[in-house]
Amino acid sequence: MTKPSTICVLASASPARATTLRNAGIEPLIRVSAADEAAVLAAFDDRDGLQTQGKVHALARVKAEAVIPTLTVAELEDFAGQHGFDSAKAAIVVACDSMLEVNGELVGKPHSPARARERIRALSGQTVTLHTGHAVSLVRVKGETVSVEATRVKAVATDVHFTELTNAEIDAYIDTGEPLEVAGAFTIDGLGGPFIAGVTGDPHSVVGISLPLVRSIATELGVFWPSLWNRL
Fold first, then answer.
1. pTM (2 d.p.)
2. Annotated catalytic residue: which of 45, 48, 97, 171?
3. What is residue 200's three-state secondary structure?
4. Is residue 198 left, alpha or beta, with left meaning phi > 0 and alpha meaning psi from -120 to 50?
5. What gap in Å lies between CA 118 and CA 156, rounded to an integer?
6. 113 neighbors 121 (Cβ within 8 angstroms)
7. Predicted confidence (pLDDT) at residue 4 exceeds the cutoff of 70
8. Is 45 annotated as catalytic?
9. The dihedral sign for the CA sequence 167, 169, 175, 178
10. Residues 6+ positions from 44 with CB-CB distance below 8 Å
11. Residue 1: is its pLDDT beyond 70?
12. Distance between CA atoms of residues 176 and 173, nearest Å
């Protein structure tokens, strides 16, 4: 069997996204983006509406664009060698960003307990929509340089159905710290899982990365999805 030679670079610090890829047979090279997300969002004029797709598209794209110039041939070759690849001829850089639409408002990470409490109370017993933008870039190793061949940016929307939470449950959840630094103040793959009754759409996107969408984009870019498998 020919060894795969397409590396997946995940432009994210999210453990949930990395775990999702690993469970799908892909060990990613993780490179955290230092993109200024606040500056990206500040460029939008909210008088034109939520502009949901535009915002998550822009956030995902800027994360990928921040990471790509930092990749080196030596790093890719070293990663390839560590994971049994013949060589590092190509890679896909995957960047994502999620925003939750609640009662006609887009929300991101709450950061503070007070804001998390307010948001979780708004989620209790409701159905809300999580929008996740994906930027996927195909890069090639050419000699001593890493160059971008093509980029695609798309988004997916998934409806999330929440159970009714008591105030005591909300306080206990916030005390764990888990909801403070995740989009919308909840997780489906952690302590917040029991508070979610179900989803309509791709459940992977609720974790922050839609595997079917990434596969579709990778295929458009000419990448054979099984060539990314390095954890079989």
1. 0.90
2. 97
3. strand
4. left
5. 26
6. no
7. no
8. no
9. negative
10. 51, 54, 55, 58
11. no
12. 5
